[in-house]
Design brief:
By secondary structure, this protein is an alpha+beta fold. About 30% of the residues lie in helices and about 10% in strands. A hairpin with a 2-residue loop joins strand 1 and strand 2. The longest helix is centred in the middle third of the chain and has 16 residues. The protein is globular. The protein binds FE2/S2 (inorganic) cluster (2 copies). The site of one FE2/S2 (inorganic) cluster has 12 residues, from loops.
Length: about 180
């Protein structure tokens, strides 16, 4: 199977039945992406595929051949944290950190959805030129990513500061 992962072309032989999550973790050693529930309920396994967020535990790896996949290892560059990672640190957005890779990838994917004016179920005005972003919108859009430690307030603060106030930060490094 062939993929581009974090900007690098990768070829790997693996069981044709592998999920993308298992392929990333077990065959390729990208253990930053976490396995929480392994059934699409927690968001810990979220990665970006061509810039869009997916639950990699529900994805059959073979179906994603030739695609650009970004894991948490690919967010920062040259030893520097991605601005959202830095904001998580500054806002105490993680405790055990197990959900953090998925939260980061999901938030970056979410920001792109907002930039494309995709509404959520709590968007009040569907005819508006751009989605009005408030905390309710962010919490709804991030509701697929669970954090058992309850670091949600810090996570929302970090996302608000990084992706909403400076949306350009959401566009780089996803390597779509
Ligand atoms: S491990 Fe994929 S959603 Fe929980
Ligand atoms: S920081 Fe522990 S589960 Fe989120």
């Amino acid at each position: 199977m062939n993929f581009t992962i974090n900007g690098q072309s990768v070829e790997v032989e693996a069981d044709i039945r592998s999920s993308l999550l298992d392929l990333l973790r077990n065959s390729l050693g990208f253990t930053g992406t976490k396995k929480g529930c392994d059934q699409g309920a927690c968001g810990a396994c979220t990665v970006l595929v061509d810039g869009e967020r997916i639950n990699s535990c529900l994805a059959l790896a073979v179906q994603y051949q030739g695609r650009n996949i970004t894991t948490v290892e690919g967010l920062g560059s040259d030893g520097a944290l991605h601005p959202l990672q830095q904001a998580f640190v500054e806002h105490d957005g993680f405790q055990c950190g197990y959900c953090t890779p998925g939260q980061l990838c999901s938030a970056i994917g979410m920001a792109r959805e907002i930039e494309r004016n995709i509404p959520s179920v709590v968007t009040a005005d569907l005819s508006a030129d751009s989605v009005a972003i408030n905390e309710r919108e962010l919490r709804e859009r991030m509701s697929g990513n669970l954090c058992r430690c309850g670091a949600y307030n810090g996570i929302i603060e970090a996302i608000s500061e990084t992706l909403v106030k400076t949306p350009a930060a959401s566009q780089e490094r996803a390597r779509a």
